[in-house]
């Protein structure tokens, strides 16, 4: 998600033909200015500040944490007067002018995060009003307002609609809903890549299977946001045609495509021009969530197992959004993010910004987490010791280390 969103910015202005998948590229560029104290991560936030903050807050709430007030307020403070969000505003006190490129992805991600954390209903309401105002006549959304609809942008807005209690099927423009757009971008079963979703049609109107778009589209068709759990088993294991492409069928077919894509190796790959195929960590994490939500737990767990063995270096290099993706993948398959191949995703994420507060004892964020000496600690034993000592429980993870081994 994190790298994908930066790539999607380029795609929207014509540099890439489609949303590029997340890869283990070189180190993130150094920030051009001091990182705000409420923002997670230490790399340049120009293209992903709001996105990575939103994913972080969603992941923390999923784990049972109350995010730090300064972290939530920083995100809310990024909003423009018209309700939209840009990827990053270095000076949120200044007005948003025509040079600032607001986008649907940052706005919809912020909605999901602020709704999860609570207390910013006015901000959320204004953001949703803006999102509805820039819906395209085909029922979908493009990355930037006025641009052609794409599967990824449409799906993240569906997540925002669902988070705010709205029915995506009733979010219409010219009589079409987001589900109509997803149906239009779903490849027929008898075509190459059948069942998959395309990012967008090419210039000739042809659809090409896109794993990144398919993972996003599964959640969009199911009416899900960033957080998903085990869903209902699919009606068909393989791609199946229907007289009418219902949202459930779109999701089933795209999930069948993804299951086949990760079936042999347990992960997705990406091939950039002039380069060898490389493991695609970010989109594999997204695929885990999509497969679990679509009722394919075995394939989801296989892909998660591959991530657990291989994705640690990628996450340390990529920063908070990558850790958040892996936490959401762990949640989707019922795994313990406190012990991800010997590393705590929880500590690694929380150490990259303001320390959150643990909202409830016994939550999954600490279950199975290893102590510093590598042994498993019993949470309830720890609770008892703290109570006896009369010091209470304070799971306040301080420090802002960029990399946690």
UniProtKB/TrEMBL annotation:
The keyword Transcription regulation does not apply. Residues 1-24 form the signal peptide. Keywords: Membrane, Signal, Transmembrane, Transmembrane helix. InterPro entries: Terpenoid_cyclase/PrenylTrfase (IPR008930). The chain crosses the membrane at residues 379-397. This is Squalene cyclase C-terminal domain-containing protein. It comes from Streptomyces alanosinicus.
